[in-house]
Amino acid sequence: MEHLLNYFKYRKKALSFLLRYSKRKFSKKAFHRFRVEVKRLQALLFLLQCAEPSFDAKSAGKPIQKLFKKAGPIREMQLEKDLLTEYKIVEQVPKLKSQLNNEIQKKRKEFFKSRNLSKSKKIQKRFKRIQKLIKKKKSFDFTLFIEDLWEEILQMMAKGIRPENAHLLRKKLKNYHYSLEILGKGNFPIHIPQVEELIHLLGEWHDRDDFLTRVEKENLTSQLTPEEEDTFREFVNQVRRDSSEIFQIVGTKLSQIQ
What are the pLDDT tens digits along the chain (258 aa)? Predict the structure, then answer.
């Protein structure tokens, strides 16, 4: 279990750093890194639960998962700004840009209010418990765990992927990817090279789908001029077309794996 211990120490170091990182310097990249590190830690916790059934992965990761959820809306709005930049209309809708910035700042305050000393201490206590468990645990064969993960993914593919369950597939693929990252990809011949490509494609689709969902639920054009509203409407239509095209590519890639 030495490789699990080393992996955990790296995650612990990275997350501990981000938990004390200054608010002013906590950039878009820092929010992204924080969320990736939590996902990697969660994958490790489920591996530990497999090796030690009495260990509760969800309970062990609960304090940091609360922060992870607080960071979610911030990351989504940051990606929305990225879309405005990618489609080269960010300067054509200044009011929307300003509105997004205000919403991000509001959510940032909520995140940093939750990222307090009490929460950090609670997380560090969980870290100590996790490290103690890994040190005590002897070697364990995770082959069946990896095979079961992949079987779940294949079953999802066999039933057909729809927009309403595509994000769940992406989460399962990421968990599979991180589990292989922890255990060593070369140790498991069932690793599929297309997994990373699928994760990327589903991420591209999910970013657009999240934005389109927000467009349907919220009135984002209330403060826009008629000209800005026309620009925004065409932008939304283009995002919708691209989202559909990416989803079709995902379907093609999935059929190749099956």
Answer: 788 999 999 999 999 999 999 999 899 999 999 999 999 999 999 999 999 989 999 999 999 999 999 999 999 999 999 999 999 999 999 989 999 999 999 999 999 999 998 899 999 999 999 999 999 888 889 999 999 999 999 999 888 889 989 999 999 999 999 999 999 877 776 767 788 899 999 999 999 999 999 999 988 888 888 999 999 999 999 999 999 999 999 999 888 876
Distance from C-alpha of 125 to C-alpha of 9, rounded to nearest angstrom? 14
Tell me 185's DSSP state: G
Task: Give the predicted TM-score (pTM) of the model.
Answer: 0.91
Between CA 65 and CA 225, with CA 212 as vertex, the angle to 5 degrees is 120
Burial profile 159-198: b = 16 or more Cβ within 10 angstroms, e = fewer: eebeeeebeebbeebbbbbbbbebbeeeebeebeeebeeb
Q: How far apart are CA 137 and CA 167, in angstroms?
A: 34
Helices 226-257, 194-217: crossing angle, 10 deg rounding:
150
Which residues, including other chains, have CB under 8 Å from residue 153's CB and lie 6 or more apart?
169, 172, 173, 176
d(CA 103, CA 179): 35
Three-state DSSP class for residue 8: helix
